[in-house]
Amino acid sequence: MTRQTSQDSIHALTEDNVQLRSTLRSLLAENRANATLLIQPYKKGQNIETWLRQFEVAASSVGLNGVSRGIQVLKYLPDEASAWLMRTVDLTHWPTIVEKLASVYGVDPHVQKTICRRKLESLKQGTRRVAEYRMLFETVVADFPQGHELPDSVLRHIFFSNLRDELKAALLGIVAPEDTVTPKTVPMFCNSVFHCRWCYCCLHKICHVIPHLKATVA
Q: Is residue 119 domain-shared with residue 61, that is, in the same domain?
């Protein structure tokens, strides 16, 4: 009897220690989240599904569990959305929060695709370096709804067409905007299909021939 009681006590202490460690981890995660901007606040018109996925990644990076995410996400939503969720949803159940937000801010994927395409087509390199232009371009590309992305050949054409005129002229002798990346063409420019996707490596190769472009390409 004494031996059984001792084992029960050890088991209870072990469970208490596990619970204590879990609580401490949660508190530390909350402190990190409170001291950090996890994500830019949601703005109406953004793809809510993409934004929520990005929030989940950011929350996971500081150790927030599903229960804590529901509280933290309120800080990044429009005031009316936060007030609504606080009154109508169990904030400890993350999947319900995601479903509720999608029901309000979700956009038909075909409409979202059209919106994103217009953003890409209106995005010009202007005086930006290619690296900055590419960053902005890929940010919009990431907002396309899953299953409704543009083909690489179309993205390549838009990217090429919106480069500054002198860079487009320099590229014309190497790659045409309607070209698609294939095993036949990739070795001509670089060793990476991804990099060649936006003609980025091609631009760097041009710099060796046209030095005055280097400052705008780097």
A: no
